[in-house]
Design goal:
Order of helices and strands: HHHEEEHEHEHHEEHEE
Family: Belongs to the universal ribosomal protein uL1 family.
CATH class of the largest domain: Alpha Beta
Protein name: Ribosomal protein
Number of domains: 2
Pfam families: Ribosomal_L1 (PF00687)
CATH architecture of the largest domain: 2-Layer Sandwich
Shape: globular
GO molecular function: RNA binding; structural constituent of ribosome
GO cellular component, one term: mitochondrial large ribosomal subunit
Radius of gyration: 24 Å
Length: 266
């Protein structure tokens, strides 16, 4: 009987030899290989960011990124955060919304309602981009109003008309208000408050990338947005319905023309 350590080493060597020679692995070997890779990714996720050769504190990283963006168009100087996600197979991707203290841009909101009181509130207090009822729906259907808004909300009374008349126009753009998406309510004020600074995110592949600031933001504003992003990502993990939730791993901060710099985040 070989000692356990030699048996384990023999299995690992056999896997690697099979990969190098192109030998077809059995289902059990593939399962063990995937398990081994997952263990390695989880261990790597727990490694302190400061151990990475490209690590910098956020304040220093911002100095480098700002210097690189000097002379570039202001509209392109976006700071983006990318976080690797370690997840078991079959676990749903992380999704959610981040409410920034300092939004990257003004969000254009459209409100559909036949309630005159709600419409007046949206215009006077929140200065939303577009407000209207049945007449607005007809104008969009006829192509008389440009669909240049980023988000849309509605009161229940107008939802059937929206779905039947402009569903095929707004739906493919992700702008059709629905109760399922949380964009329909009797009282729209709480939704509007959140939407003005809220940005959606979704895991793509094994990472989440999200614009979190502009290079002209102060260090404090960038840090506040990073903390808000961290909170939203972790809340998304908490909401996962699985026995083995995802883990946030290596996180980099970059600018439109800059390199990726590893920071403390997860």
């Amino acid at each position: 009987m070989f000692p356990r350590i030699f048996t384990r080493q023999f299995q690992i060597t056999s896997f690697r030899l099979a990969e190098e020679t192109g030998t077809k692995l059995t289902k059990e070997q593939l399962r063990k290989r995937e398990l081994r890779k997952m263990v390695q990714r989880r261990l790597q996720a727990k490694t302190p960011a400061s151990d990475h050769p490209l690590y910098m504190p956020v304040s220093r990283a911002l100095r480098y990124l700002r210097a690189i963006e000097v002379g570039q168009p202001a509209s392109q100087q976006t700071i983006t955060l990318t976080t690797l996600v370690v997840a078991e197979r079959g676990v749903p991707p992380l999704t959610g919304n981040v409410s920034f203290g300092k939004p990257l841009k003004d969000v254009k909101v459209a409100v559909f309602t036949n309630d005159e009181a709600q419409a007046a509130l949206m215009k006077d207090k929140y200065s939303v981009h577009l407000v209207g009822g049945s007449d607005l729906v007809s104008q969009i259907k006829a192509g008389e109003v440009s669909i240049d808004f980023d988000k849309a909300f509605a009161t229940p009374d107008i939802v059937p008309q929206l779905a039947s008349q402009v569903g095929r126009i707004l739906g493919p753009r992700g702008l059709l208000p629905t109760a399922k998406k949380g964009t329909v309510a009797e009282d729209l004020e709480p939704l509007i408050k959140d939407s003005m600074s809220s940005v959606p995110f979704r895991q793509r592949g094994n990472s989440i990338s999200l614009g979190v600031a502009k290079t002209h933001f102060t260090d404090k504003e960038v840090l506040e947005n990073l903390l808000a992003t961290q909170k939203a990502f972790k809340q998304s993990i908490t909401n996962q319905q699985t026995k083995k939730p995802s883990i946030l791993s290596q996180t980099t901060l970059t600018s439109t023309h800059g390199p990726g710099i590893v920071i403390d985040f997860a």
